[in-house]
Amino acid sequence: MTSSAHGVRARARIEVTAAIKEEARRQLAKEGAAKLSLRAVARELGMASSALYRYFPSRDDLLTALIIDAYDSLGAAAEAAGDAAADIGPVGRWTAVCEGVRGWALRNPHEYALLYGTPVPGYTAPDTTVPAAARSALVVIGILRDAHQGLGLAKPSLSAELRPEAVRMAADLAPDLPPEAVATMVAAWAQLFGLIGFEVFGQFNRVVEDRDTFFRHAVGQLAHTVGLVYPQQGPAGAPGGRAAEPS
Amino acid sequence: MTSSAHGVRARARIEVTAAIKEEARRQLAKEGAAKLSLRAVARELGMASSALYRYFPSRDDLLTALIIDAYDSLGAAAEAAGDAAADIGPVGRWTAVCEGVRGWALRNPHEYALLYGTPVPGYTAPDTTVPAAARSALVVIGILRDAHQGLGLAKPSLSAELRPEAVRMAADLAPDLPPEAVATMVAAWAQLFGLIGFEVFGQFNRVVEDRDTFFRHAVGQLAHTVGLVYPQQGPAGAPGGRAAEPS
DNA sequence: GGCAAAGCAAGAGCGCTGCTCTCGTTTGCG
DNA sequence: CGCAAACGAGAGCAGCGCTCTTGCTTTGCC
To answer: What are the HTH tetR-type domain coordinates in residue numbering (chains A, B) (predicted)?
Structure first.
């Protein structure tokens, strides 16, 4: 009973905290971050709005908690997609992870907006969000690493002026990988969220219809740009018959 | 005096309307769309908040006006950048336009957020915004067209399953251009805003330092993906000596 | 076991928001 | 000239984030 001696109150605290986050997440999914109201959460939970401040010092702190959870959820989705495509070569895994991220974004548009949309005006994300944010990015770094070790990575060429920056980025993110690949991958990662953002935020309305196919195509081109290639000596099943990579 | 017989009141109306938009734009630039307050605008203009509703039925309508203006401002920036680089070949113009768009976004981050960030929850852009939104996109379509006529366009290859969609998109956007190029350009356009969005929204903090160079590199790769090539028979000055295109 | 201290829920209240309604005034067309 | 439409100002409603005060309950030390 030692831990639950503390626990009677402590447990209630984490339960209430969880309930608040749960209800907040529900409102977030339904109406978006802009309309997330502490008062509405409290109302739904049957408690006074002022009581909420015992658990979250401010609305922004509640948002921070939701952001971390969202990053984690996205990271888990990316990891799952990558693992499910573990042995079909770098291009296949890259495609799978991209589609995993896209699927998550389409399933959770408001969470996506929270992470990659307009930042809240006065709000700056605390450092606690950094590791959670990195999780999904680490998945593609992992793909790059596997490809590099297995001859599935063609070094993209780099302009001379970008080299120092690429070296610096590689030193930070993946010292064991060629700087050209790291820098190009960072760019591809950003571009991926351009594609996803346009779709989630409705910019493709009346422009792109068959979005699955369109996304596949763009992601295939990105793979080519990054330097991911089908393994010369495919150990298992080859990519499957798609011909999405150009040139 | 026929038009200004109407005009005494009508002119006052458009003047007040302009003053409201001006003040609103000032607040937008300073604090962002989320903190744009009708009451604050009215306060600054020395009028009652209720009077504002004679000119804009709701806050969202004021936002719509600002959105159209912002699209127009972005379109003008893109056109200016494209015109300034009129005779340096498709790759140079593409790069110039991309940098023009990026520069505009960095100079007007809140306007950028208004256009390409999280959409306002209940708000759906009326059709009036569509032509303004298309203006900047038309610039790159124009580059594509010029490149196509001047042998500066290498048809990117397409997966078979995307062809029908590409044909449909080309029919809508630019019937005179090869579908492969149109579809790939739409993807590149979206990816461009991934790069810009990551920079404007702070996703590159602590990751990318030399962002000018980084952006140039990514945009050069995009040009290559789209199929823009340096003209075989350069009429005027060649690109200039950069070597930004891979492979 | 008793008791101070800390944690907790609730209510009232402040200043702000978008928006509506009413009222008295001004304007300009027929 | 008359009258309808446009206009500005004020009061007010419901909602928001957040703070402060007031009581009550649990906790943990002596």
So the answer is: 14-74
SS3 A228: strand
Strand partners, B231: none
Rounded Cα–Cα distance for residues A126 and B193 (Å): 25
Query: In one letter, which amino acid is B13?
Result: R
What is the C-alpha to C-alpha distance for residues A143 and A86, in angstroms, rounded to an integer?
Answer: 9
Q: What is the pLDDT of residues B93-138, one digit of tens each?
A: 999 999 999 999 999 999 999 999 998 766 777 778 888 999 999 9
Contact call for A187 and B195, based on CB within 8 A = yes
Please give the backbone phi and psi of residue B153, each rounded to the nearest 5 degrees, phi first: -130, 115
Contact (CB, 8 A) for A27 and A37:
yes
- The residues near A190 (Cβ < 8 Å, ≥ 6 apart) are B194, B195, B197, B198, B203, B204, B218
Contacts of B43 (CB under 8 A, 6+ apart): B49
Compute the nearest-CA separation of B225 from chain A (Å): 7
Q: Which residue in B has a C-alpha nearest to residue A222's C-alpha?
A: B225
- Does residue A206 reach within 7 angstroms of strand D, measured from its CB? no
Is the pTM for the entire model greater than 0.70? Answer: yes
* Distance (Å) from the alpha carbon of A63 to chain B's nearest alpha carbon: 15
Q: Is A190 on the interface with B (CB under 8 A)?
A: yes
Residues 6+ apart with CB under 8 A from A142: A82
